[in-house]
Amino acid sequence: MEDMIRIAVDGPSGAGKSTIAKAVAQRLGIDYIDTGAMYRAIGYKMLKKGINVDDLEGIQRLLDTTEIDFSKGDIILDGQVINDLIRTPEISKQASSCSAVGIVREKLVDLQQKMGRAKSVVMDGRDIGTVVFPDAEYKFFITASPEERAKRRYNELIEKGQKVNYDQVLADITDRDHNDSTREITPLRKAEDAIEVDTTNMTIEEVIEYICKEMK
Length: 216
Ligand code: DC
Hints:
about 50% helix; 3-stranded antiparallel sheet; alpha/beta; binds 2'-deoxycytidine-5'-monophosphate; about 15% strand
């Protein structure tokens, strides 16, 4: 137990958190947990079942009958691999709305804490250093300018063959920044003891190097 480490990687949408967190986890040989994917999974299921964000009873019933798991880099919702199904602009919006619902956050934070108690993890999200693991051994807050983040997200979506428009991607990012940082329940903010890394003018490799050096 004493050897367990928890590394929290927080920051706004599209700052490169998941690529960075995944690479750091791989270097250290520990698990990577993408908490954004968990909010996306709930958003996806709510959309599929036609449950609205203000239908708290419906959401509670859904949460009580939902299983989310990670295995070999896949996210599994009720036994089904949903990796690609949750990476669409529609689910991004849906995830942002459902992440403002208290009972959704309670359930997912609880699950995340269980996952991080069982083994060493690199966990990325918005509230890992502040709420999920306030006592994490290492905390990083990854940022980049909205334009740079939009450019990265745009390239990612184009590579996946999706039809997107840069201005729309930028508008979506700005919108989500606003939602994520102004919501009443645990809005996105940097933990006081987190190391902030502005990646606007850095390559992914430079960021990974920097983080690994900070941890030595
Ligand atoms: O990191 P992402 O873009 O996949 O996250 C999807 C949404 O979930 C995003 O709007 C923010 C929210 N989220 C959150 O509120 N808390 C987390 N720990 C992770 C994501």
